[in-house]
Specification:
The chain is α/β, with parallel strands linked by helices and 360 residues long. It has a single domain (44-357), classed as Glycosidases (TIM Barrel). It is 39% helix and 14% strand. The protein has 14 helices and 9 strands. An 8-stranded parallel beta barrel has the order 1-2-3-4-5-6-8-9, surrounded by 5 helices. Helix 11 links the parallel strand 5 and strand 6 (234-237). It starts with 8 loop residues before the first helix and ends with a helix. Bound molecules: (3S,4R)-3-hydroxy-2-oxopiperidin-4-yl beta-D-xylopyranoside. (3S,4R)-3-hydroxy-2-oxopiperidin-4-yl beta-D-xylopyranoside (XIL) is lined by residues 77-78, 160, 206, 238, 268, 324.
Length: 360
Amino acid sequence: MRSDAPLSRRTLLAAPFVAGALAACDRFATAEPAPVAAPPLKSVAAFPIGSAVMAGQLDDPAWVALARREVNQLTPEWEMKMEYILQSPDRLTFDAPDRIAEACHASGARLHGHALIWYSQGEQVFSGFDRTHFPRAFDRYIAEVAGRYRGKVVSWDVVNEPIAEDGNGLRDSHWSRALGADGYMIRAFEQTKLADPEAVLFLNEYNLENNPTKGATFLRTVERLLKAGAPIGGLGTQSHLDIEIPAGQITTLIRELGGFGLPVHVSELDASLRREGVGDLRSRTQRLEQQRGRVIELAEAFMALPEHQRFAFTAWGLRDSDSWLRRGDRDDGQDQPLLFDDAGQPKPLTAALAGVFAGR
Ligand code: XIL
């Protein structure tokens, strides 16, 4: 469907008769679907329901009220990453993550740590270390951060996004170049285990459902790392879903992840209504149907896991307007990738999800 679109939307819109026909369809409709009633997700699910959070959102009473009603686990969206914590050359910055940790403690929500080692981060600081000091600094960072939040987080994304973009093999990064392709991951898991022996330690990746090659590489990587003794305690699938993937692909991936017997975390769910890069003549109704199909498939596949393997089901934000897909250049003001509308109201998708979680 993606590759065979013969004309771009721009080209089509240049033809007045086509533009007239398109204007009549709901492709350009902006009205939100009427909100529907849905029980709080956390009240119907037998596992934690999560959301991403930024410290600033804790000052937004509407965000806080929605979070308290709907979720019982939070993942810092940005402020527990190396990019934030290592922003100053001479000290680690913990103000925002501490604030999030306190908010979790005060409200009784679980805190999922995200993320210790991520390919794109820390390069500038770590490039200053030679072969002797690099591994020491690596260990020290993990000890400081995971040690600080010991007893406060329930889990960590220890290594985030280790698989190559196209799914063929592992990603080349400053970590892999210094410590080995599998070596940096094994070391990160071992060091995190030392710093926080109780936390569930996750390997987290994206596009696993969207790209079966990447899914297969991830599974092989997990197998290899476990064999090498890495203390991996859980598997995270970010689930930034492409709503146009064939039915069944998500189910297969979740079932395969479950095959390791470890807890599975749907760790960053969102499902954009947009299609990048090529023309798009889908109506809004069609897109919402595709979105509902894939998100519900994900929820059903998650529910099909044995109960002890359902770690948590986390969306990458609460309201559509909170989404990273609705910020800056990426914001067309119309995408609806999350589970609550801009006003924080549940949608038909939310109600359907609640039904799956409740086992109806
Ligand atoms: C994104 C955040 O949403 C943005 O605010 C930030 O600028 C960049 O990172 N995979 C991940 C998340 O593991 O940490 C990313 O979050 C989204 C993709």
